[in-house]
Design a protein that fits this description.
By secondary structure, this protein is mainly alpha-helical. The chain has one domain. The chain is 63% helix and 4% strand. The protein is built from eight helices and two strands; from the N terminus they run ααβααααβαα.
């Protein structure tokens, strides 16, 4: 639903102002269905019993989720979830494209939101086979999704994004390349 071809077809069914919010709603409902139908595989892959190790992994877990939330605000939280588009439509305001910007975390890594998810999914003192399966599949999904997203960003922002892509690492927060 995040691809341009789908958006064009979807906005023939729903108003353009609700395209993003319906995407978020349907994605959230799909995730809820996954959670509801999840059948745990409880065999333990690793279990960190050292209290310091447990605290470190739990801290990383919360840093990951904090990074996800923080990243959404850096790129416009309310637009990301489709709320701003609906609000502007209700108020009769025109919608404009988001300018390309690289605030804060985006200067260190191109996809801090995805990095936050990966950190949160993998940071656990007790990794079961089910959790490992979830982590592997969602990480693979993120790596594939980034390829599509970067293609769309290059189409939207052209050389500006190409230059950014050459300078800033995709998921590993290393110093920018020259």
């Amino acid at each position: 639903m995040a691809r341009l071809w789908f958006k064009k077809r979807w906005t023939q069914i729903v108003p353009e102002a609700v395209e993003r919010s319906t995407y978020v709603l349907l994605a959230s409902l799909t995730l809820l269905l996954l959670y509801w139908q999840w059948r745990p595989i409880k065999s333990v892959v690793w279990n960190v019993e050292n209290p310091t190790g447990q605290v470190l992994l739990q801290g990383l877990f919360w840093i990951g989720w904090g990074g996800v939330l923080f990243s959404t605000y850096l790129i416009d939280h309310f637009s990301l979830f489709g709320l701003k588009q609906v609000w502007n439509y209700m108020k009769g305001l025109s919608e404009h494209s988001l300018p390309f910007k690289t605030p804060s975390l985006y200067k260190m890594v191109r996809h801090p939101l995805y990095l936050g998810f990966i950190i949160a999914f993998w940071s656990t003192p007790r990794m079961t086979v089910g959790h490992l399966f979830f982590s592997v599949v969602t990480t693979a999904y993120i790596l594939v999704a980034i390829q599509f997203e970067e293609k769309d960003l290059t189409s939207s922002y052209g050389d500006l994004y190409r230059t950014y892509r050459r300078r800033v690492w995709m998921l590993i927060p290393l110093p920018p390349r020259k």
